[in-house]
Amino acid sequence: MNPSVVFDQYLVAIPAVIEAGAEAKFCATLRQPSGTLVMTVTLMSREKNTTLFTHTSNEAFQTCVQFKAPLVQKEVQHFQVEVRGDTFYSKQVTKVMIQAYDPFTFIQTDKPIYLPGQKVNFRVVTMDNKMRPANQLDPHRNRIGQWLNESSNSRILQLSYSLDTEAREGPYQIIVSMGERKISHNFKVEKYVLPKFDVTVNTSEEVSIGQEDIEAEVCAKYTYGQPVPGRVTVNVCRPINKYFFPVIFFLYCSFQADKTGCATFSFNMSIFTKVDQKVLQDVLDIRAKVEEEGTGKLCFSFKMTHQCRIRISYVLGKVSFINMPKVWERGSNVEGKVSLTCCFQLICDAPVYLFTGQMRQTHSLQNLTTDSNGVASFSFSTDNFDQDIQLHVTAFYDRGFHILSMSQPSSPDIKTISSLEVQTNNKAVACDAEEDISVNYTIVGESPGSVDVIYLVSYLWVYYKVEHDQTFVCLLKNYLTEGQVSFKVRVSPEMAPEFQVVAYAVLPSEDVIAHSADFSTDKCFSNKVSVEFSPSSAVPGEETNMQVTALPHSLCGVSAIDKSVLIKEPGKTLDADKVTIFDLFPLKKSSGIPYEVDDATECLNVRPKRYVLPYPRQEQNDAYAIFQVKYMYTCESVKHNVNAIDFVVAPVFNMFVCICYFRDDGKRGVSLTVPDTITTWETEAFCLSSQGFGLAPRKEMKVFQPFFLELTMPYSIIRGEHFELKATVFNYLTSCIMVTVTPGPSSDYTLTPLSGDLYTSCLCANERKTLRWTMIPTALGAVNVTVSAEAVASHVSCDNEVVSVPDRGRIDVVTKSLIVKAEGTEMTKTYNWLLCPKGSPLTEEAEIHLPENVIEGSARTSVSVLGDILGRALKNLDGLLQMPYGCGEQNMALLAPNIYILHYLKGTQQLTTAIMEKATNFLTSGYQRQLNYKSADGAYTTFGTGPGNTWLTAFVVRSFAKAQSFVYIDPRKIEESKSWLQHKQQENGCFEKSGKLFNNRMKGGVSDEVTLSAYVTAAFLEMNTSQHDPVMNKSLACLKQSLSDLSNTYTTALLAYVFTLAGDVETRAHLLQHLDTVAVREGGFLYWSQTAAETSASLSVEISSYVLLAKLSASPTAEDLGYASGIIRWLTGQQNYYGGFSSTQDTVVALQALALYSTLVFSPEGWSTVTVQAPSSQLTFDVNQSNKLLYQEEALQDVSGKYSLEVKGTACASVQISATYNIPTPADVTTLSVKVQLEVNTTSESEKTTNMVILDIKMLSGFSPDPESLKSLKHGLLVSRVEQKEDHVLVYLEELPKDTPINHSLDIIQELPVDNLKPAVVKIYDYYQPGPKADTKRRSCWLNRRRSFIWMLAHEKNMKL
Predict the structure, then answer these.
(1) Which UniProt keywords apply (predicted)?
(2) pTM over 0.85
(3) Same fold for the domain at 9-99 and the one at 530-586+638-703?
């Protein structure tokens, strides 16, 4: 506006920031033209000028013009307004920013919390058509999964990631990267048990310090909505300020819940006000605990991050001015009223004090007394005032303020005291409805005439979109004119969650007055989405129909989650009512215009509000501030430009797994089978369409059996034991029923009734009844126990009431599995052959003798055949060893064999999709688990703590490097580990030992340094590091220094492999020649042992495998392959039932060697027939190219005796005969005290400690370890790790010192009584040397595999081990 011209006035408003390519608006006002004027509006950039508006008029006008912003990335352009007439000319130029914004994106997971081992399903929702990389980070910022260049034509990208069973607990993060932008979503991994019921505390959010009694209610309800019978315990605490000594002020009380599952209690506030209030926080914390009747299960109403907290208020009432004038004139009396509203239903009897002046220089004006309505009137003379009057009123601890502006004639030199005020509404405005908006005006000292009041409505979804613009005329008749104008605003979904109304007027004095107000709306969307179930509730297993309604051609994501999960981890949902969905949107409300477009000069003649302390930073209502803050603001675009053609319901949760489509009617029904779980499912549905986003109100589907059955039984028992099977029937009907409870027939067990004639009996409303049988299993293995309960018709009345039969869910059938194990200890014998007939039949014989004390019925013998020596390992990728995998090295025994087998199958073109999926799942899981043992410096440790382990780090990094071609491995982790290893290289080229040497028996004629350096060097060479690399040059030089001493066969074999990889032909030949001289040749078998006296099978497998790798890693000749065949025959004979070997290390190296050999000798042709002759039966197996990887296994009728086999054809066949049986435990041991005398030899007299030792404690039937005792055991002497696997507790002992007893204890608790209790077996063994032989001449502290047993038998409910 040009202030030098009196009569020609104009005002133009435009957003400070405009979205590139979007529709934008500016508003222009011209008033009191002195003649014909031409207004031209131009948008100017460096490239071109665009005329947006030209209008010629000799009359006043007000209009808003829409235009399309230029499509640029980010650019400041100039907005020019030119007004020209015969006697008038004005030009104003201001800056505007044109900016492109990234699309809106959010991430949704199917749950907020997961158990280790569960699958994380997640969706990425965006308006772009291309997604770039999505990453996952674990609690230690390790990248554990990555998807690159993922795209979704449907705008919803759906992916999943399986967590490892050993995944670390804590927060995880999914990160979506789109160019430079990153969006993240958090979820938790935790070992949790879902709660059966929820506990809520209902009370006021705020209480007064003056209240006497405070009431609260605690309620507990099952997830299916029924009340929980039980006892409520409540703690009320007022916390201490952290600066004071932590004295506890609390109240404890206990109540019985009523039939509704609730208990009401009250307490006196004075309990918490007896101490100096400065010491205490102004809050009350309420903790409620409910113990379920009958089961004793607990559920707490709060966690550390979510407790029931009540604020304590010191405000006993609110005081304010009412019916007050805004302007005062000299010589007049000011009249007004004060209103006092008392809080918390307290009695209002406090005095009211009236003051004038600045906040810190107030003067008492009057003392007032309120009437029965809490109102006091006052009047005072203005004779002693000559400026604005600031009034203060105080009562209780509250204060009210009001400013009276002094009336003065309007003048260009005096700022106006006229004002506008947009009236606000405390309630949210309904969507798709009209809202009445009122603007109060006070115009002072203006000349008679008229004033146009102009209002604009804008909202935050788009850049200053003017939805409404209108002019109202106010007639000025007197010196002081007050009044109100009203108008209606139709609230559309695009205006949610908040819109603004800006009102302004240009006064005759050329002053501009303005005011704005924010209005909140209901949380609504342009796409109306709803989900309905028919029927709305169901019984388990019942069919239901889900109806989804949205705009035609929408794309929708529908999810359902068990309400128990939300009780455990509330929040983390898309919820319009909680505003969480709006929080996800990139919405930003500006507090001013960007500095790039800020104009220094003010073109408006405005009066800033005169503030009074203590609120100088409240909302600014002067015109210039309004147009800077409210009128010109920025936000990020969230327009949904979706080109989806079909509506897709694509759920990711366990309850619903379906995809369906519809075209034009906006509705789709999906038939679903309700899960067999009694709970409440809560849905979450959102939709995208070309018209925008939509979120359905959350809908519940209650799955409930009107009466249902629960079985109570142990996880497992030993044959010969028996227990009390309990079946509890619950009736949640409103009437009595006649229930018949019947166990299913089975030949696997016998049941003896213990409940008399109650198996058909009355069960009235909200009652439960427990029925019992004595159960004696007769079969081994997994036994399914089935019991059914049925509501039957009956003429017998119950409690003088006629029994009813429910229309739905009148039968409930429950089946649970019971593991029945044979008595004693399981033993296994295996015989392996690799037979390659090459046209001539080959035969072999084996004879199996079972011990005399074998337990009847426990023996089973089978024969298995494969056409590939790696087929058995391929079948058992998750269990090559029946040993625990609880440390970093053992985990690698799961991961590494997958890599070698995959490389073999890929190299021989046998890799199928199914095998690839299975193996990569194990690789991904192993990679994720291995990161648990990684240190920040890149090293890996055995149990995730302590100094980095040189050998283990090399093992990991070589494996990760090989795995990269199959699964995502973060390359940064490999580089970090390589760098750590390089820093461990010493001056002499060898690598420094860090961490415990993995196997004591590898020590021998050379130092540990040479063996370790050879292993690290091999790892680098396997990663294709050049032998000319400085690190390799130094390490190879170090290794050559040790070649004068070849007494350690293990180290010699490893060196032969290293120099083969390095291409040192001469050194390799020298080492292999020496190894050939010390080889053991027995028939057609060829293998090596550490020394003539040391015949450890585990070490022999490793040594022989390294020789095999050395022979085959350098372009082997036919002679080399022939030499290798003797090693292969011996190695395959050492395999266990699962395809592995004795320990982790020999399994990994042997399978690497076998994979290399199999790749070299692979032939896509050939067949063979295997015939197995048992004493009384014969089996035949066919092996060909189409089934060579197929695991063929048959049980033999004869569990012992002489077996012969014959192989005919042209292809090799891997054959295994396996016998498994149990032997009894001693019957005379009756104590839980454990004393073990260990008798095993060592390789030298100087050996002072063992390798790692595993203590495997089997629980007695019906018992479980005490959680607190288990926790204490984890901190025991030399205990590295303790884990619980089903009914076993595994204790990892770092080592055991020679001749030094180590004592540990473990408490076990009886959960269910079991009669005729059998002994449970405790095993202890050396992890690395579980071989069958032991030399009793020397004593040490480590054991033979499966040879040393400790038995225990319990007679009390709580016992110590």
Answers:
(1) Disulfide bond, Glycoprotein, Protease inhibitor, Serine protease inhibitor, Signal
(2) no
(3) no
